[in-house]
Amino acid sequence: MKLHDFRVLSFDCYGTLIDWETGIWNALQPLLADNHQRITREDALAAFGKFEPEVEHAMPHLIYREILEKVHGELARLWNLRSSSDLDRQFGESIGHWPIFADTPAALAYLKQHFKLVILSNVDRLSFTHTNAKLGVAFDAICTAQDIGSYKPDHRNFAYLLDQVRTLGNAPNELLHVAQSLFHDIEPAEALGISRCWINRRGDTGTGSGATQAISQMPTVNFTFRTLGELAEAHANGSR
Question: Which residue from 4, 149, 166, 194 puts its CA 20 to 30 A from 28's CA?
C-alpha cells in the first residue's frame, strides 16, 4: 500500500491540522489565573480528555462550542475554581483562536494538488469557518458533528464520511483518513475498514495521551508520520 494508491484524504482538524492542545491550554488561562494548586498543562489536558467525550456522549444535540462551555464548567468544578457563564462562553468561542501547526499550510497546499481533501471534525460549522481561513485551501467536503448529529468516535460520523466520498465520485477504498487522535479517529476508522494514517504529533508510543482520551490497545495503522509535512514529503518523493 502506498500513498499514491489513494484519491481522497480526510482529516481530523483539531489535533491534526490545528494545535488544539496549545489552544485549549491558552484558553484555560483566565480560569486558572487565580489558581494556587499549580495545575500543570498535562494534568489540565488529561482532565479535558476525560470530560470532553463524556459531555459529547451525554449531550450530542449541543454544538461543539456549547460542548466546550460545559467542559469548562466541569473543569472548574473539578479544580474547585470559580467560573462564570461568560468564562464558559469565552472558552467555547476560543476555537477560532487555536493556533495552526507550522507545517499545516504548506502540506495542505501540496496535498490539494494530488488529492480531494475532506474535513471530518467534531466542530460546529461557524467555529470551523474561523479555522478554515487559517488553513489556506478549499476543501472538497466539510463534515461537522453539527451536520451529522453525533460526535466521533461514533461510527455514524464515519458512515457519513463514506457517503460524502461516494458523492465526490470515489470509492471507499480510495479514501485515506488522516488523524492524530487514536480515540476519536484511528480506532473507529479501523473498525469500519477505512485506511488510516496516524499523525503522531505528540510522539506517543501506544494508546494516546494529552487532550485525547487514552484507549486500551494500539490500533493498526497503514501509515505513521510525526507531522503532516512528513506525509506530504513522503508522497512527493514516492517513499511511501
Answer: 149
- Cell numbers placing 43: 494534568
Q: What are phi and psi of 108, to 5 degrees?
A: -65, -40
Cα separations in angstroms, 170 against 82, 158, 236: 50, 15, 22
* Closest listed residue to residue 13, CA positions, set 228, 236, 232: 228
Q: Rounded CA gap, 57 and 125, in Å?
A: 19
Instruction: Select which of 5, 12, 43, 163 is catalytic.
Output: 12
CATH architecture under which domain 20-97 falls: Orthogonal Bundle (1.10)
pLDDT (tens digit, 9 = 90+) per residue, 175-190? 999 999 999 999 999 9
For 3-19+100-237, CATH gives 3.40.50.1000
* Strands of the sheet with 175-179, listed across from one edge: 141-144, 116-121, 8-11, 175-179, 195-199, 223-225
Q: 0.70 exceeded by the pTM?
A: yes
* Alpha carbons 211 and 188: distance in angstroms, whole number: 18
